Amino acid sequence: MIVCICNAIRESQIRSAARNCPGDAEAVYRSLGCAPQCRQCLDDATDILDAERCAA
User: Which pTM was predicted?
Assistant: First the structure.
């Protein structure tokens, strides 16, 4: 599933980055080489990060 349309970031990319980047959603975006554009995806990205980190 695409989470960020502006940067074409998939849920799987965010989940993978959550394991390697301890920061918030914006830090994870930076680790993927981009930045949030319209910012509408940040709530969903944060939820995915939280879920992935709780599962770890």
Answer: 0.91
